[in-house]
Write a structure and sequence with these properties.
With 134 residues, the protein is an alpha+beta fold. The protein has four helices and five strands. Bound molecules: tetrahydrodeoxyuridine.
C-alpha cells in the first residue's frame, strides 16, 4: 500500500496539469488502488462551464477504464488553507465505485483534513436500494 504522503505528492503533481482557465482553481487528485498503484487526475474545464470534470472524477474514470476496481483512498489537493472536499456528484460516484474509502485533503504545504467517504456522504442512494441482484 502506498503511503499517504506519496498519494498526496501524486495529487500535488497532477494539479500542474489542471485545465482551469475559467475558475483559475487548479485541483489534483490521486486514487490509491488496492494493489498499491496510484492513478491521478486534474480538473478539466470547458467553455460551457457545465461540462467541467473535477479532478476526482478524472482520476476515478481513468482508473476504472484501466481495469482497476478496488480502491483504498483518494487525495485531493488545492491551493487553499481550508480543506477542499469532493463535490456532491464526485462523492456519489466515488461511493458507487470505491465504497467507504478514506479522503485525504491537502494544500501545497500540508495535509488539511482526512475523512471517511461515508462521513462526507451520509445516507447515500446506492445499488442496495434498487433491490436484490443489482
Ligand atoms: N473542483 C475539483 O476538481 N475538485 C473539487 O473537489 C472541487 C472543485 C474543480 C471544478 C472546477 O474546475 C474548479 O475546481 C472550481 O470549482
Amino acid at each position: 500500500m502506498a503511503g499517504s504522503d506519496a498519494l498526496v505528492d501524486a495529487a500535488r503533481a497532477a494539479r500542474a496539469f489542471a485545465r482551469a482557465p475559467y475558475s483559475g482553481f487548479a485541483v489534483g487528485a490521486a486514487l490509491e488502488c488496492a494493489d498499491g498503484s496510484i492513478v491521478s487526475g486534474c480538473n478539466i474545464e470547458n467553455a460551457t462551464y457545465g461540462l467541467t470534470v473535477c479532478a476526482e472524477r478524472v482520476a476515478l474514470l481513468k482508473a476504472l477504464s484501466e481495469g482497476r476496481d478496488r480502491f483504498v483512498r483518494i487525495a485531493v489537493v488545492a491551493d487553499t488553507d481550508r480543506p477542499t472536499p469532493p463535490c456532491g456528484p464526485c462523492r456519489q460516484l466515488l461511493w458507487e465505485y470505491c465504497g467507504d474509502i478514506e479522503v485525504v485533503m491537502a494544500n501545497l504545504a500540508r495535509e488539511t483534513g482526512r475523512h471517511q467517504l461515508a462521513t462526507l456522504l451520509p445516507m447515500p442512494f446506492d445499488r442496495s436500494l434498487l433491490g436484490p441482484g443489482r
